[in-house]
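Appendix B: complex inputs.
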Amino acid sequence: MTVTVNHVAPAPVATAAPVKAVVLAADAPVAYDKPYNNETYKATHPGRFHVVFDQSAGAGESYSSKLVADRDYAPGETLALLDNKSAAPVKAYSSVQYGAGPRDHLELNSDLLFMNHSCAPTVEVSLPARQPERWEARVGPAGVKKGGDLTFFYPSTEWDMAQGFTCSCGAKNCLGKINGAKYLTLEQLEERGLVNEHIRALKAGQ
Ligand SMILES: [Zn+2]
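Resulting structure:
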C-alpha cells in the first residue's frame, strides 16, 4: 500500500507590495568637487556637455555659469544618467527632489549641477518613482544643437524650493517668480514639459 502524502505549501499571505523608499548612498560613487572657474574646471562628461563660466562676473560663486551641449542631440536622447548621485543632507539650491518625502533630495555630483532653469527648457530631468537606476537628464522634444544651452524647468522636480528666484530666462511664457511647483497650477507645469510623478502626487494632494 502506498501512502501518498500531499505536502501542501501554506497559501501565501496576500499582502500589498510594500512601497520601498529609495535610499541613496551618502557619498557619491566618484568624488566631486564643484568647480568655480575655468582654471579648476574638468568636465565630468567630456564630449557630451561642458560648463561655461562667465569669468567677468568676478571671483567666487557665480550664477552666470551655464551648461552647453558638446554635440547635436536628438529629441528624447539621454544626456546623462544620474549615476553619480548621492543623498542630499539637506534641501539646498544645488539639490534635486526625487520624491514626496521631506528627505527625498539628491545631489547630482556632476556638471549637471550647472544646468540652469528655464521656463522653456531644452532638457527634462526624469525621475521615475522607485527606479533610481533610470533617473536621467534627457533632451526635450525640440532636440539640442551643439553649443546650445542645456536648461531644465526646476518646478518639474522641485515642490517648494530652498531658494526661490526671479527668472530672467527670456522665454515668451516666462513665469517670472520661480519658487517650486507648489506655487504653480498643473496646467502651468504641463505646458513646460515633463512633470515628475512625485510632483503630480503632491499636486493632487494639495
Ligand atoms: Zn523664466
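The first strand starts at residue 49 and ends at 52.
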